[in-house]
């Protein structure tokens, strides 16, 4: 049994039109959401053997926000291919993960993150497909012995958390 957690980066800023998409930073709401998600991860003692992440600025800042929320994460591997990866490409990246990794977190972009969560889940796919807001996290338990066995519908969606659900106001 393996666990795959998919996190979409937090809300980014569109305030400065001179900044290209790759370099867009988080906006105020994004920072607040990332910190709240970090607090959630810390409170629920979520740990990962490996974190695969896009190199985009908003992903880097999302990880920083998680840490500011109190979550101490494991090793991060930034993969430039995640930024432009479609469903098949991201599936390939995950399948290439070392067999030593039991719990994997992937931090990336929509629509790929949401599509992957929906396609891998036997249940709850409709919950995440098309409704995967910035900063949302899906945890999928997988009935596989190794990452190379990863296929559509061989996972069980066990958690779907949005930043909005974490705010008490």
UniProtKB/TrEMBL annotation:
InterPro entries, per database record: His_Pase_superF_clade-1, His_PPase_superfam
Gene3D superfamilies xref list: Phosphoglycerate mutase-like
Pfam families referenced in this protein's UniProt entry, alphabetically: His_Phos_1 (PF00300)
Database matches in SMART domains: PGAM
Protein species of origin: Sphingomonas alba
Domain of life: Bacteria
Lineage: Bacteria, Pseudomonadati, Pseudomonadota, Alphaproteobacteria, Sphingomonadales
Protein's name according to its UniProt entry: Histidine phosphatase family protein
């Amino acid at each position: 049994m393996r666990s795959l957690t998919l996190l979409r980066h937090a809300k980014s800023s569109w305030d400065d039109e001179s900044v290209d998409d790759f370099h867009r930073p988080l906006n105020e709401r994004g920072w607040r959401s990332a910190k709240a998600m970090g607090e959630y991860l810390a409170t629920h003692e979520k740990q990962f053997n490996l974190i695969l992440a896009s190199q985009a600025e908003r992903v880097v800042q999302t990880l920083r926000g998680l840490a500011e929320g109190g979550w101490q994460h494991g090793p991060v591997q930034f993969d430039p291919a995640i930024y432009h990866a479609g469903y098949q490409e991201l599936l390939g990246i995950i399948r290439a993960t070392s067999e030593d990794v039991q719990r994997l977190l992937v931090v990336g972009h929509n629509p790929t993150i949401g599509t992957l969560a929906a396609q891998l889940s036997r249940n709850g796919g409709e919950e995440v497909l098309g409704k995967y807001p910035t900063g949302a996290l899906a945890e999928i338990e997988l009935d596989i012995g190794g990452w190379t066995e990863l296929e559509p519908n061989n996972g069980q969606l066990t958690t779907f958390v949005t930043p909005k659900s974490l705010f008490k106001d």
